[in-house]
Amino acid sequence: MHEVKELMAKDAQVIDVRDPTAFAGGHIPKTLNIWKDGLPAYAGWFLNYEEPIIIIDDNNNNIDELRRHMVRLGYDNVYGYLSGGFSVWFKCSGDFETVKTWSVHDLLPNMGKDSLFLLDVRKEDDWIKEHIEGSHNIYIGLLEDELEKVPKDKHIVVSCDTGYKASIGASILKKNGYKNVTNILGSMMSWKKAGYPIIKG
């Protein structure tokens, strides 16, 4: 744990590969959340090949597989992992943060509030095809470069297809000092299954 803290102080890249619900429940501050199966598609948008990479998981059962997977993606700078998983961090009184989660049923009555900024991080083509009225689109891979479009004084509610990419977005926002961030679990898939209105392009 102390070594992880030391490396983080030296700008190590810390990636939490747990699912969005686990990440939301508690995570090390300033960590990026990309779920395991999302690494091939999204690691290249956020991780560089120079600074050491530290992996955070729950039980580390798949750590060797994850390390091999990262090497296949070209990342030979995987330094290691948090021994014992995330539970060791909070058991040793490490600071941690949470991300609020909403269902689509929580989102609906809050739509239209001036204090809410609904951020959809899907690809632009998908957003144009169908989206929730009032949502703002910034593709997840471009979010960190376009944070000036996301107001810090509002409640940022992040949506995508199912909530997985939204969790990446929430972790980027938290990492960059956004305090009031919520992930919509189920996102567009749940919104449509609930029969709520969508805007079609």
Structure description:
The mean pLDDT is 92. It is globular, with a radius of gyration of 17 Å. 35% of the residues are buried. The chain is an alpha/beta fold and 201 residues long. It has helices at residues 2-9, 20-25, 39-46, 63-72, 86-91, 104-107, 124-129, 164-175, 187-193; strands at 13-16, 32-33, 53-56, 78-81, 100-102, 116-120, 130-131, 136-137, 155-159, 181-184, 199-200. The chain folds into 2 domains: 2-91, 3-Layer(aba) Sandwich (Oxidized Rhodanese, domain 1), CATH 3.40.250; 100-200, 3-Layer(aba) Sandwich (Oxidized Rhodanese, domain 1), CATH 3.40.250. The chain is 33% helix and 18% strand. The strands form 3 sheets. A 5-stranded parallel sheet has the order 5-10-9-6-8. A 4-stranded parallel sheet has the order 2-1-3-4.
